[in-house]
């Protein structure tokens, strides 16, 4: 069979990224231009700045991805581009770029769902992973438990009612003065603290066993800090980081295990920025071992936003026959 090469383009948040992927699983190039240093100054992503920076970088990032993969547009079978969910102005840059290339070259366009990209990141390094499996997606914008029934076919069985897991990490990090993005910093500081030091709440939702809520644990951390300050007790930041992380990991692991049991899933995959959290990986590894399940997760570079995962998702959509016209538009709240 002929090899299929996909050019992936991703610009939904604060990473401008392009990648070339062969047959959905073999990464020929993966170029990421991160804007984190810019947004850091404001303590979070500023949408207007993100859009402008994407415009500045996108051509160069695509050129680099093509050069590194040693391909020309003649070799590319389809362009996979994230068209949602995400920041509308940021998404539009990638979508407009992909449409322009498609119009100029005649290469088919495959609009790709960002979350489907995160799930597909697991295919890159785990060559043996095939649906069906249960995927926990934990990123800065999303927290979902999804059954991947077939390639490109998903059933969402749980989601967050308020903050995303990564958002909670970022907010708690800000509260203890760690800066943005806070997830990796909490992860590192947690190693020096005691996860049992402070009993932060584990939210379980009546009648919705696979839904999440992280606003309570975030508020509990803020209350704990206020309480310490009022009483003149020194705040132990490492203990807060460790105890917060343990509370979040506990909930993520126990709900994932319950969902695996309920839906008869034997394979578990992790995806999204928080999937690189060491506490989460360790917690999932122990639980999966205990319950006889296999666990998959991407390397950190494929957990956070990248275009290789978009190209991988686009490959399976392309094989399923998905094609988009030049009327493809950015959809900020796109459903899976
Ligand atoms: O998937 P991603 O790059 O962007 C979205 O699509 O949202 O995820 C970014 C999120 C941020 O909230 C960041 O703090 C979190 O992932 N994150 C982590 C870790 N690395 C990144 N959270 C906890 N532990 C980490 N090691
Ligand atoms: Zn993402």
Automatic annotation (TrEMBL):
- Gene Ontology CC, one term: cytoplasm
Q: How is the cofactor bound?
A: Binds 1 Fe(2+) ion per subunit.
Q: Which top EC class is given?
A: transferase
Question: So what does this thing catalyse?
Answer: L-threonylcarbamoyladenylate + adenosine(37) in tRNA = N(6)-L-threonylcarbamoyladenosine(37) in tRNA + AMP + H(+)
Q: Which residues form the Gcp-like domain?
A: 26-311
- Xref: InterPro entries: ATPase_NBD, Gcp-like_dom, KAE1/TsaD, TsaD
Q: Which Pfam families match?
A: TsaD
Could you tell me the superkingdom of the organism this chain comes from? Bacteria
Binding site residues for Fe cation: 114, 118, 305
For this protein, the record's CDD domains field holds: ASKHA_NBD_TsaD_bac
**What the protein does?**
Required for the formation of a threonylcarbamoyl group on adenosine at position 37 (t(6)A37) in tRNAs that read codons beginning with adenine. Is involved in the transfer of the threonylcarbamoyl moiety of threonylcarbamoyl-AMP (TC-AMP) to the N6 group of A37, together with TsaE and TsaB. TsaD likely plays a direct catalytic role in this reaction.
Q: Which family does it belong to?
A: Belongs to the KAE1 / TsaD family.
Please name the HAMAP family in this protein's record: TsaD
Tell me what this protein is called. tRNA N6-adenosine threonylcarbamoyltransferase
């Amino acid at each position: 069979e002929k090899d299929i090469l996909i050019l992936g383009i991703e610009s939904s948040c604060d990473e401008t990224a392009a990648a070339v992927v062969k047959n959905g699983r073999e990464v020929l190039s993966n170029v990421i231009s991160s804007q984190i240093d810019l947004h850091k100054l404001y303590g979070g992503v500023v949408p207007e700045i993100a859009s402008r920076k994407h415009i500045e970088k996108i051509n160069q990032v695509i050129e680099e991805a093509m050069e590194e993969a040693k391909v020309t547009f003649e070799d590319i079978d389809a362009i996979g581009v994230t068209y949602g969910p995400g920041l509308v102005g940021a998404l539009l840059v990638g979508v407009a770029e992909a449409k322009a290339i498609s119009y100029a070259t005649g290469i088919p366009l495959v609009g790709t769902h960002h979350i489907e990209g995160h799930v597909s990141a697991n295919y890159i390094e785990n060559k043996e992973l095939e649906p069906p499996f249960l995927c926990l997606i934990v990123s800065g914008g999303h927290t979902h438990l999804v059954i991947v029934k077939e390639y490109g076919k998903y059933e969402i069985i749980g989601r967050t009612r308020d903050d995303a897991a990564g958002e909670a990490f970022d907010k708690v990090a800000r509260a203890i003065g760690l800066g943005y993005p806070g997830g990796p910093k909490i992860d590192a500081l947690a190693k020096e603290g005691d996860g049992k030091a402070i009993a932060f709440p584990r939210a379980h939702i009546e009648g919705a066993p696979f839904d999440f809520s992280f606003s309570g644990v975030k508020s509990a951390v803020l209350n704990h800090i206020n309480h310490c300050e009022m009483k003149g007790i020194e705040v132990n930041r490492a203990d807060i980081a460790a105890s917060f992380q343990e509370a979040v990991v506990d909930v993520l692991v126990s709900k994932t295990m319950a969902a695996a049991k309920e839906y008869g899933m034997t394979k578990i995959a992790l995806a999204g920025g928080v999937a690189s959290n060491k506490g989460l990986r360790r917690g999932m590894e122990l639980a999966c071992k205990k319950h006889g399940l296999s666990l998959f997760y991407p390397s950190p570079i494929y957990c956070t936003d990248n275009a290789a995962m978009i190209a991988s998702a686009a490959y399976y959509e392309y094989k399923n026959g998905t094609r988009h016209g030049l009327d493809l538009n950015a959809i900020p709240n796109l459903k899976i």
